[in-house]
Design a protein that fits this description.
By secondary structure, the chain is an alpha+beta fold. It has a single domain, classed as Peptide Deformylase. The chain is built from three helices and seven strands; from the N terminus they run αβββββββαα. Strands 1-2-3-6-7 form a five-stranded antiparallel β-sheet. A two-stranded antiparallel sheet has the order 4-5. The protein is globular. The structure holds nickel (II) ion.
Length: 172
């Protein structure tokens, strides 16, 4: 396993629409394992492949709290097949937008169909933090960031901040 570098705003690759995985092979399983290790190391509760610069429809999540048994979930080609009318608000963050947190409203419950680490089709019902996390990661596969759910003012403010920080880094 390996810890992979995480790309950050304003890296344009974060805006790519990722490609479906045609088959769960050893390379995809390796990617999933590396992504889990990268996510735990960060630490974070979800990671999409594009965040490690791989434009494939793969994500990993684990919303277990510290001290609880880990509950890693490896997902390829996810599809939300149902979402509740009821909404939930969580304060979200993103490993690609470090140290920025804002409330985002999303459906409270979702049902997701996906391919698991063995290439089997699965469906799960998710609510609470897991539902939010899955929707956040699926957004990444479509080039969407959680800041896109905020007001234009807030989004432009954080975007500018990260563009400026990147410029300062490259000037050093
Ligand atoms: Ni994210």
């Amino acid at each position: 396993m390996a810890i992979l570098p995480i790309i950050e705003l304003p890296d344009p690759r974060l805006r790519l629409v990722s490609e479906p995985v045609s088959k769960i092979d050893a390379a995809i399983r390796q990617l999933m394992d590396d992504m889990l290790e990268t996510m735990y190391d960060a630490p974070g509760i979800g990671l999409a492949a594009i965040q490690v610069a791989v434009p494939k429809r793969v994500l990993v999540v684990d919303v277990a709290r510290e001290g609880e048994e880990p509950t890693p979930l490896c997902v390829a080609n996810p599809e939300i097949v149902w979402a509740s009318e009821e909404k939930n608000i969580y304060q979200e963050g993103c490993l690609s937008i470090p140290e920025y947190y804002e409330d985002v409203e999303r459906p409270e419950k979702v049902r997701m169909r996906y391919l698991d680490r063995d290439g089997k089709t699965q469906e799960i019902n998710a609510d609470g933090l897991l539902a939010t996390c899955l929707q956040h990661e699926i957004d990444h596969l479509n080039g969407v960031l959680f800041i896109d759910h905020l007001s234009r003012l807030k989004r432009e403010r954080v975007q500018k901040k990260f563009v400026k920080a990147a410029r300062l880094r490259s000037d050093e």
